Amino acid sequence: MKNMTFQLDKQRREPLYVQLYRQIKQEITNGRLVYGEQLPSKRKIADYLTLSLNTVETAYGQLLAEGYIESRARKGFFVHFHTEQFFIQNQKTPLSPVTKIERYFRYDLNPHRVDTALFPFSRYKKTVKNSLSAANRHLLCLGEKQGESVLREQIRQYLYASRGVSCSIEQIVLGAGVETCINQLILLFDQRYPGQCLQYAMEQYGYPVVEQLLMLFGKPLLKLPLFNQAFRSEPKIDLQLLVQSAVNILYLTPSHQYPYGNILSVNERHQLLEWAHRQDDRYIIEDDYDSEFRYIGKPIPSLQHLDSSLSTQSKVIYLGSFSKLLMPSLRVTFMVLPLSLLPLYQSTFGLLNNTVPRLTQHILAQFMQSGEFEKHIHKMRTNYRKKMELLCRLLQPYRHVIRYHGEHSGFYLLLDLYQESRSVAQLQMLAEKCGIKLYPVKQHNTDKKYFSFGFGNLEHDELHEAVALLMNAWGYEGEAAA
Ligand SMILES: Cc1ncc(COP(=O)(O)O)c(C=O)c1O
């Protein structure tokens, strides 16, 4: 790379992105990089210095924000600073990068982030290229209303093999995101039970998107408290409250409940199915969004599987998504409707076009057919499992102050700062000061200090650094294993 030598030291406490940012800035201010000169691409620097793309992005982001460089669309990054300017600025007010850097998050511990570095770009690109050809010009026209049959067939096979869901492709409906599917379900239930004020329920910390939709539709919603199974012997979900209420439609994430990462036990599953079958106007929406990423034991069969093995009149609507399996921006979600709801679905929505672009569906179907999808999931499961194991290891010396939950599945750990007297807001502020965006889990009626630590998009060295920074910010000292 053009005359640019950087010496980054992973052993130093100063984060790598700060080191990189400082060194590029120095090259600019001492005139070695001159106004208008192009900087190497982020990818090139990342490869050259064996850094994560995230690290380079943060350093470039900081330089951009401070006006040392500018970004030109489709061209790259260019020096945007005259050396003379530096001397004028320097005499007046010395730059204080530290105070500015605090506004940027070095690590965003969002529990929903996936690992974008391992996306199979070249294989996916090949599928895109193959699909975009004159031979496929029919894809330019509108497709099937419930989604392309080729993709629904791939989903059917995948669901049967990996989640035990048995259905025909007629029962599968594609939608652009969970919101589209839930929207349709709310309207469908209203059609099915006209004039009835249907009541909904979900887990206390259920998916906010679903909660918001139900509120927008003005649906009465009951939040069912979850109990932390690790410390108590109560059930994980308040079934008693459900049974005593007038709920009709229950939305659940039985294979990975937020925030504890619990799995609904077989007993509870049976009780819930029994509850649903007791009345015609009761249904369960099973959101199985990230069940592939389970690291211990056998995968838990879906609730839909259990229901269809017990009864011919299924009461479960199964929801799945490619957001965690591939990428959230794909916006491909699907639902499996019980046969009893199918005629009404088709008469209600029969005229509406599918919300997922036809070409996207076709590409995804080809990607699945080629076996690349399955390979990718295997690779990602191992990848996330290793990150989860590393995070648990890194937190081990802090068990006298932090408990964690949910290590058997998903992309985050729930941290319980059980010895802490400072407030959640104070702890969050301390984390933010050292560049870490944390997500507190709000607890009703308790003073628990819960945070979710998402690691999906962090590399191993970044995990080391993020934990060290966080523990340091909170003033926690590690203890050697007994
Ligand atoms: C509970 C839950 N359901 C579903 C999804 C996926 O939603 P979508 O398919 O709309 O991306 C997510 C994503 O984070 C989720 O947390």
UniProtKB/TrEMBL annotation:
<dbReference type="GO" id="GO:0003700">
    <property type="term" value="F:DNA-binding transcription factor activity"/>
</dbReference>
<keyword id="KW-0805">Transcription regulation</keyword>
<comment type="similarity">
    <text>In the C-terminal section; belongs to the class-I pyridoxal-phosphate-dependent aminotransferase family.</text>
</comment>
<dbReference type="Pfam" id="PF00392">
    <property type="entry name" value="GntR"/>
</dbReference>
<keyword id="KW-0663">Pyridoxal phosphate</keyword>
<keyword id="KW-0804">Transcription</keyword>
<dbReference type="InterPro" id="IPR015421">
    <property type="entry name" value="PyrdxlP-dep_Trfase_major"/>
</dbReference>
<dbReference type="InterPro" id="IPR051446">
    <property type="entry name" value="HTH_trans_reg/aminotransferase"/>
</dbReference>
<dbReference type="InterPro" id="IPR000524">
    <property type="entry name" value="Tscrpt_reg_HTH_GntR"/>
</dbReference>
<dbReference type="InterPro" id="IPR036390">
    <property type="entry name" value="WH_DNA-bd_sf"/>
</dbReference>
<feature type="domain" description="HTH gntR-type">
    <location>
        <begin position="14"/>
        <end position="82"/>
    </location>
</feature>
<dbReference type="GO" id="GO:0003677">
    <property type="term" value="F:DNA binding"/>
</dbReference>
<dbReference type="InterPro" id="IPR015424">
    <property type="entry name" value="PyrdxlP-dep_Trfase"/>
</dbReference>
<keyword id="KW-0238">DNA-binding</keyword>
<dbReference type="InterPro" id="IPR036388">
    <property type="entry name" value="WH-like_DNA-bd_sf"/>
</dbReference>
<protein>
    <submittedName>
        <fullName>GntR family transcriptional regulator</fullName>
    </submittedName>
</protein>
